[in-house]
Structure formats: structure tokens, C-alpha cells
Amino acid sequence: MSIYERGNVWWYKFKFRGQEIRESTHSTSKTLAIRAERERRRQLEEGINHLKASKQAMIFSVHAKHWLQDNGPHWSAGTVEIQSRAIHHLTPRFGKLLLTDITPATINQHQAARKKAGASNRTINMEVGALRMILRKHRLWANLQPDVRMLPERSDIGRALSADEVHRLLLACKKSRSRSLYPAVLLSIHTGLRNQELRLLRWRQVDMLERTITVGRSKTKGGEGRTVPLSETATQCIQEWRREFPDAKPEHFVFPSEKYGFAGEPGHLQGVITPYDLRPDVPIGSWKIAWANALQAAGVQCRWHDLRHTFVSRIAESQVSDATIMALAGHLSVKMKERYSHVRAEAKRQAVASLDIPQTEGRSAAPVQ
């Protein structure tokens, strides 16, 4: 038996079939707490022997696992990965707690710790969002909601990089120890593919003859299955990248998981880094560190998603229709539509303004009627 006092309330804690049970008695009486602990043990023992339905111990790690299993078949591959990553970061703090032990204070502590670790407000909010859905499923969120505050997020839709910024960034990516960073960044600028769409891209989705990429599972229904033509620059880039994998199969990932290290003793002495532990059937985990280093080296401040904005901005400045832009990008938010409608309108105004330039070839200038 193990009972203890927290504040003015008594709790009990014990192990049952290897599972830690820790619950509040909601009582200030030690005597009642002892009786409550004995009654809880009895309920569990009766349940395991089919004498009475037992009350399931609501432990976060168990319920989080079940939540992912139940919802995974209904989510896209990207959503599964995002939610799995959220649970991975939630587990160290909440994993051994009963759902009833989770309080606004423990949630605030998680937010503070993740922020100190360098996680963005958006990432932290997504983690709390996963926690909220699990608690809501068990009717426990309503009591916590008034005292839990989400962190502020950026409301801007991003920006397009200038030609000089693109040039500096690509040069820095070429020098990165991550050999996949340069082709990934260049393809993002030339196709508008999202980071997740690039990471999960397989060789069967790349048509070298037709020079197209067909997007697989995407963040939006409009983005899923869209075909994006490759520019000459993008075609050359992906052809060169393909030569790095002579044994690649259609089902292999274009950007596979791999590690980097010094190439033997000479490499250690000369600083030569080479990839190893290539796993073509597993997508690369992240370009986060390599991307941050490249941004610092290039002196550019932007998000990866701004590469997509750069792509959309460039094609919006051309004379293609709005329908074509939507077909290439897959989906645009309302704010993005407004932004690039303005860009197109400005390009049209400049084109019309050119009609006001005086015509002096062999005749006097006269306004266009």
C-alpha cells in the first residue's frame, strides 16, 4: 500500500499487472484514502477475473497509442507522421500520467520546456492539439480548456524570395553536408511542392520522359494527385540526383534516409564527409539542421514554405490563368489568393501602362486611342 498527500488531498499509488495506478481520492481523510486504495485494488482484481467490469486505468501513453491506431487509417501519411511526432514529444512529460492527472499546469510546463528547446509556437500548438483530442475523446478536456492558452502564431502567409536571395541560398545548399538539401530546395522553388510532398516523393512519381512529377498524398485534396511539369533546370537537377542511386527502384524514395560521416582515416584528416547507412525504403527524416545552417551561411531569413511562395509568385507574374496557378499549386489559402491576385493585377497594369509610351518611329508621338 502506498498513499501520500499532495496539498490537502490524499492520493494512492500501486502497481497492478505491471501497470502503475496513481489516482486522487479527492479526500482530505487519510483513513478514507486507505479504504479507497483497497477498493480500487479489489475492482481491478474482480475485473481481471471476469467477476466485474474493471475501470480502465487512463494512462496517457496507452491511450495515445490507441488514438494513433484508431485514427491512422483515416489520415494521410503526412498527418500520421505529424501526429506521431507530436505524441513523441508529449510522452516524456505525460506518458506515465493518468489522463486525470493532466492539469493546465502540466500543459503549461510542457509549453515552456518545448519553447526553451527551440520548438516553434506552431509546433507546440500542434502537440497541445493532439493532447486536446485525446483528452476530449475521454470527456476530460472541457474542465481544462478555460485555463489552457495556445501560443501565438504568425498570421502572415509568407513571402517570395528575391532572385539574389535564391542565388545565395542555393549556393549555401550546395555546400551543405546534406547532399539532398540542394536538389530538394531547387525542386521546391521550381515546382511549388511542399516539404512533406518532397520528403514522401517516390521515383515512380517522377516521369523523366514527360518531365513531370505527380504528387502523391498531400495536405489537401486539391494537391493530391496533381501533375507538375519540370522546368529545364529542375529536370537537369533531378536527373543528376537520380544518377546517385543506380539501383533505385520505382517504390524507393527520391530523398531516402541516410547518415553522414568521415570517409575513413583520410576523410577524418581532410574533412571529407560521405553518406552511409542508406535506407531507400525509408524517407529522409528532416532537413531541419541542414536547412538552418544553409540559411545562416546564405544570410537569408525565410521558412521552407516561402520556397513555395516564391514558385507561386513567379508564375503569378506571368500571363497564365488563375486556374493554371491553382492546378500547379494544388491549393491556395484565401490570403494567398488575394496576395497573388494583387501580383497579377500589378503585372497587368504594367503591361497596359506600356501602351502610354510615345511611339516615335517615323511619326510624331500620339496617345493611343
Which features would summarize this protein structure in a list?
elongated, single chain, 8 strands, alpha+beta, hpI Integrase, Chain A, 369 residues, 3 domains, three-stranded antiparallel β-sheet, disordered C terminus, 14 helices
What report would you give on this structure?
The chain has 369 residues and is an alpha+beta fold. It has 3 domains: 3-48, no CATH class; 75-147, no CATH class; 163-351, Intergrase catalytic core (hpI Integrase, Chain A). Helices cover 48% and strands 13% of the residues. The protein is built from 14 helices and 8 strands. It has helices at residues 30-48, 60-71, 77-94, 104-116, 121-137, 163-174, 181-191, 195-199, 232-242, 264-270, 288-298, 305-316, 322-329, 334-353; strands at 3-6, 9-16, 19-27, 206-207, 212-214, 227-229, 256-262, 273-283. The strands form 3 sheets. A 3-stranded antiparallel sheet has the order 1-2-3, with helices on one face. A 3-stranded antiparallel sheet has the order 4-5-6. Strands 7-8 form a two-stranded antiparallel sheet. Strand 4 (206-207) and strand 5 (212-214) form a beta hairpin. The model is unreliable at 361-369 (pLDDT under 50).
